[in-house]
Sucrose phosphorylase (Marinomonas aquiplantarum), 585 residues
Amino acid sequence: MEHAPLSQLEQRLMAHLQLLYPTLDHKELARQCLATFFLDPATESPRPHRNLWDQSDVMLITYADTLRKKGEAPLETLHNFVKSKLACCISAVHLLPFFPYSSDDGFSVMDYTTVNPSSGNWDHVSSLSEDFKVMGDLVINHCSSRSMWFENYKAGVEPGASFFYEADPNADLSAVVRPRTSPLLREVKTQNGEKHVWCTFSHDQVDLNFENPDVLIEFLRIIRLYLEKGIRWFRLDAVAFLWKIPGTTCINLPQTHEMIRLLRLMIEHYAPEAVIITETNIPNQENLTYFGNANEAHLIYNFSLPPLLINSLVTGNCNHLKQWLMSMPPAQQGTTYLNFIASHDGIGLRPTEGLLSEWELETLINTMKRFGGKLSSRTTPKGEAKPYEINISLWDALSGSAHQGPDQWQFARFLCAAGVMMALEGVPAFYIHSLFGTENDFERVDNTGHFRSINRHIWDMDELDHALNTPTHHQKVFNSVTNLLKVRRAQPAFHPNATQYILHMGENLFAFWRQSLDRRQSLFAVYNMTDQPQHFNLSELNLIATDIWTDLVSEQVYEDHLGKVTLMPYQFVWLANKKGKIKDD
């Protein structure tokens, strides 16, 4: 009996499975994967190198329950706020984990298939996805020690009995790269005796064992559920640690990259408009590998941007920021960067490795501590504690300079940071608190005992409405950032894949040139990174003499192409030869 030839999808899927599970029946496993995902083997492959975004794409990062209103599900409150206040300036919402959890504000998932009842339900998520692109977290490396899977693991029953990664406590695990200082292994009493499970992050977050294909099948089921509920962007949380081989660093292993390629293959065949983002808070060169050959992540987080940009603004010297960006390869079509300067976590310091000297890093840490920041550490393979991240709100991080301390330029410095992020190659992502200028929440740190809580404030909706409708710095930040975003979204030169060249204008002025994909719009972005006025001549920018150049920020027209421009502390200009049409609210 002749068998039908394998489809292209089946062949590609089997190739990934063969590398991940060399001893198994790849054809049968491929059949299982496709059946779990409800995929017809004959499904056509989407065209490669498609840009699934443009200059209008701006992401909001938020917890499901950051905004709370009495008598209303937080997800509903969030949807109402985003729809009424932010529809003009964002296109996508990253909902941080909204599932039942036991710790780490959601990243210790107890049940991947339900919405935390205190936040809402799946209907709220689906409703949000009808108005905005929604990015969900796939917490793929680990789950809660209070999950049903782990309870089953201890009882020796499936699903769960074989879902977790075990290790020999006597094995040499000294090479393992860790983001934490807690012991790597946790001793657990099970029905089958005493075991030691692998915990990359905390003893409440037990690592899953993807060497077992049943774990892969379970996650395909979870991903399909998310797709059915309207989620189209997927953030692969802590994915760099996914595959473990004792005796290695257990980070960025070839099998991890292979697994990402497999997940992308499945997801984009189910939904060709879907997007995968890898969350890999690691040194820059390692981070870049997650693009693969435009067949892994569509977007990678620009993890070096937050520490380098903040460092530039508090020191008044942009050399490191400039040198780093000059070393960054333009993203291939179909891939781009996710730019951010604040998140639910802290300012990661691993991405500064090889970019800032020890002395410069120490200066940055001490400055952030002066502004109320906290320092979290990790353990190196040699057992040493090393700075891992600074925990601080962006508003307070930019409250002054390294040499003067707090000053009167906090708002200007804050807006300058936002202006840089918006204009760089890639998709800008704003943590919700960066839209409000939310301050350090020391009370929340005291209540939770965790430094990261400093930047995870919960806003009462009535209090937020009052803050945004009265003359406060919250109102000033919100109005200025959202107005700037409206301008940004209208400019073809700000397409995430538009050309970018870094300009040399000294250590105090940060500048770059963007050009739209059709080459019609040119835009020069120039920023004063200091607390003193700075001057430059327009002749340095090589403006096209026959064009009329307008600063899109102030709307000032520059007719003298050889004239001198003075930028006040932290002032910036977006000089463009054409103005994109800004949509009305």
The mean pLDDT is 96. The domain at 499-576 is CATH 2.60.40.1180 (Immunoglobulin-like). The first strand starts at residue 59 and ends at 62. Residues 346 and 391 are 4 Å apart (CA to CA).
